[in-house]
Amino acid sequence: MRRRLLAAAAALLVAAGAGCAEKASGFGTDGRLDVVTAFYPLQFLSERIGADSVAVSQLTKPGAEPHDVELNTRQVAAISDAGLVVYLKGFQPAVDEAVKQEAADKALDVGTAVQLLPAAEHEEEHVPGEPEHAEGSTDPHVWLDPVRFAAIADKLAQRLGQVDPARAAGYTERAATLHRELTALDTEYATALKSCARREVVTSHTAFHYLADRYGLTEIGITGISPESEPSPQRLAEVAEQARATGTTTIFFETLVSPKVAETIAREVGARTAVLDPLEGLTEPDTDYFSVMRSNLTALTTALGCPS
């Protein structure tokens, strides 16, 4: 009896050790790779490329502003246990720190896959208590350029294949499909925005630099990279003057931030307001990256007087 009890205890210890090893490897008990993503666009990519081979979680709650996300103990533990963490360095300081401490050797900074653009030259009013953007800092909103987003998809598939070689072919195949869809979206944008009456886009938050750069538009941001900053009276006057000079008919605001600043400019120049979604997080059910990007395109073509 004593020998049987010792054997059973040893078997339990082996099983427990195997379970711990499996968890530490980044794969769940169902065999799927655990992928932790920082915010919605990276979740979208991971789910499309990983499909049933991965279990994807997101660190930014739906409807929350991702710039200022703070992590709880459970989320930090998820980063530590993940097989791969997908994030954008410099966009979410709390995520950067957690990755540095818990997952430096198993994280993908998607900003390394493409050439990032510098942050807008005019900087917003500094928010007290928040870190100032360093000189030479880059604009993080790279996912709004379908071409760069496709390059990130390819890089993610490559990294997933390195972490999970047995399913690398599936990751590569799904990324190729997604790349083709993003290329088609790029063609839609380029065609629709080719011959518009206006090319200036006035936004409450300077989040559309990549989109503007790709399609030959000029973004006039009321505030800079941080959407929660308050513009100075001088900046409001400057934007109003530019809006009048360019014949702007629409002042855009985004989904996760108050529209008050955009409404102020709109009243000043006799324009209307409309939503241009920076896709930092979904706010409506039954939407995804592609549906929101196409809604943005419709809003832009209407505002800019583009031929249908």
Description of the molecule:
The chain is α/β, with parallel strands linked by helices and 308 residues long. Helix 2 crosses helix 5 (146-163), helix 6 packs parallel to helix 10 (289-304) and helix 8 (233-246) packs across helix 9 (260-269). The chain has two domains: 30-114 and 139-188, 3-Layer(aba) Sandwich (Rossmann fold), CATH 3.40.50; 195-304, 3-Layer(aba) Sandwich (Rossmann fold). Helices cover 46% and strands 12% of the residues. Helix 7 links the parallel strand 5 (200-205) and strand 6 (218-223). The radius of gyration is 23 Å and the shape is globular. A four-stranded parallel sheet has the order 2-1-3-4, sandwiched between helices. It has a four-stranded parallel sheet with strand order 6-5-7-8, with helices on both faces.
Features:
12% strand, single chain, Rossmann fold, 10 helices, alpha/beta, 8 strands, 2 domains, 4-stranded parallel sheet, globular
The counted number of beta strands is 8
What Rg, in angstroms, do the CA atoms define? 23 Å
User: Which architecture of the largest domain per CATH?
Assistant: 3-Layer(aba) Sandwich
Q: Low-confidence parts, pLDDT < 50 over ≥5 residues?
A: 5-24, 123-135
- What general outline do the C-alpha atoms trace? globular
Global mean pLDDT: 88
**Largest sheet strand order:** 2-1-3-4
Task: Give the helix/strand layout.
Blueprint: H1 2-24, E1 33-37, H2 40-50, E2 54-58, H3 73-81, E3 84-87, H4 93-102, E4 107-109, H5 146-163, H6 168-192, E5 200-205, H7 209-215, E6 218-223, H8 233-246, E7 250-253, H9 260-269, E8 272-275, H10 289-304
Parallel strand pairs: 1-2, 1-3, 3-4, 5-6, 5-7, 7-8
Helix pairs in contact: 2-5, 5-6, 6-10, 8-9
